[in-house]
Specification:
5-stranded mixed sheet, 12 strands, Cytochrome p450, about 400 residues, binds protoporphyrin IX containing FE, alpha+beta
């Protein structure tokens, strides 16, 4: 792998795939918001990083100039990235017809129906931790729950969990730096879902009622009001993006929650004593530890906040930075469990806003509630500065060693 030269100035030479960014991302973004809200870099064939709330909204809403055809900034040339992750890699007008048929599977009603199964999964994972004095909040819990949930939704064997984790890591972590890993993972995921689709097709009316069958039967709307079946590429792309979108995001946020509560005893005590704070607390964790920074492909020379940006390059929308913008949030760098006005952007903004947000919120609530009921007292077993954060577009703690207190 090529050497990664250290960053000289984050405003003109940023490297969002560096260990430094993984460790200090929030502080670096705070500095950029102040002194250079549209940072740039010559790395990655030229890219920009937008950090202010309003500029992110304006950019995300301009889907013509800032296309979703490429959603990552990595060492691959932007014009060489051809990964189909419909609907996230589609722009209007093609985007809506492929997104809408997926929405009912993630509606509040569908999420409510799924909740008892998620509670049972969380309880089982906690049973495995049992009476241990030390547990890893990320590796033993946060990183397992969303994988189980998605496996259950796809209707695939529970034994696929470790493979899903390897694919997600391959695509969103190591693979962002070592492209061969990402390519291998992508090929395996595509083959896996192609086989799953074939199996459901062979079963015909006997196919189980799972997400793979839903995608197989999905019909995209046509401009004349009629419909057409999803193409094979769209089917595989949709299952692929649901797996990518549904796993790492949620595990990162749940891991961040346990990291925070393990290192902020007053917040832990308060949340255990006042469980009615859970809804505002979940939103505040999402705001404060928002995991996703995602890219757009620039289709034409343009300006963002008066800064010229060039056609053919990419721009990163730092949703986590929008969520700490002092123009929008009072005391943005404080985590306030009962924060009232909290219109955060952890789930994005515009037409691509997260379609799994109901499911994500339920998983986070169930996952955290079950943990706190079982382990109301725990603390981080290492200094917070020793916790490593993942490199890549989704930020979360890689490991959260916790001491369980009696
Ligand atoms: C804490 C958890 C989650 C966070 C923070 C999150 C965040 C996001 C963000 C920021 C976007 C917008 C991307 C953009 O601007 O291009 C997005 C899109 C998306 N998310 Fe999530 N997500 C989470 C959980 C989930 C779950 C559980 C699923 C489904 C199983 C999911 C599926 C998707 C899909 C399919 C899209 C693309 C939507 C489209 O292009 O229309 N996400 N998510």
């Amino acid at each position: 792998m090529p050497e990664r030269p250290p960053v000289t100035d984050w405003a003109t030479d940023f490297d969002h795939l560096s260990e430094e960014w993984a460790a200090d991302g929030p502080e670096i973004m705070a500095d950029l918001r102040e002194r250079c809200p549209v940072a740039s870099t010559e790395r990655f064939y030229g890219a920009y990083l937008v950090t202010r709330h309003d500029d992110i909204v304006t950019t995300a809403r301009n889907t013509e100039t800032f296309s979703n055809r490429v959603t990552a900034v990595n060492t691959n040339h932007p014009d060489k990235i051809k990964l189909d992750l419909s609907p996230i890699t589609l722009d209007p007008p093609e985007h809506g017809p492929v997104r809408r048929p997926l929405l009912p599977s993630f509606s509040p009603k569908a999420t409510d129906e799924l909740e008892p199964a998620v509670v049972a999964m969380a309880e089982r994972l906690l049973d495995d931790i049992g009476d241990a004095e030390l547990a890893d909040g990320a590796l033993d819990y946060a990183q397992l729950l969303p994988v189980e949930v998605m496996g259950h939704l796809f209707g695939v064997s529970a034994g696929m969990g470790p493979t899903f984790r390897r694919w997600v890591d391959g695509m969103l972590k190591e693979g962002q730096i070592d492209l061969a890993i990402a390519r291998r993972a992508a090929r395996e995921v595509q083959e896996f879902f192609a086989n799953q689709l074939d199996e459901r097709e062979d079963l015909g009316d006997d196919a189980p009622d799972d997400l793979v069958s839903t995608v197989l039967r999905a019909e995209a709307e046509l401009p004349d009001g009629g419909t057409r079946p999803f193409t094979r590429k769209e089917r595989i792309g949709a299952l692929f993006v649901l797996m990518l979108g549904g796993i790492d995001t949620t595990w990162s946020t749940l891991g961040s929650m346990l990291f925070h509560l393990g290192s902020h005893p007053d917040d832990l005590k308060r949340l255990v004593a006042e469980p009615e704070l859970m809804p505002t607390a979940i939103e505040e964790f999402l705001r404060y530890y928002s995991p996703v920074t995602i890219a757009r492909y620039i289709t034409d020379d343009a300006e963002i906040a008066g800064c010229p940006v060039s056609k053919g390059e990419r721009v990163l929308l730092a949703y986590p930075s929008a969520n700490r913008d002092p123009d929008y949030f009072e005391n943005p760098d404080e985590l306030i469990l009962d924060r009232e006005n909290n219109r955060h952007m952890a789930f994005g903004v515009g037409v691509h806003r997260c379609l799994g947000s109901n499911l994500a919120r339920m998983e986070l609530r169930v996952g955290l509630t079950a943990w706190l009921e079982r382990y109301p007292r725990f603390e981080l077993a290492v200094d917070p500065s020793e916790v490593q954060w993942s490199v890549g577009p989704i930020r979360g703690p890689r490991s959260v060693p916790l001491r369980i207190l009696s």
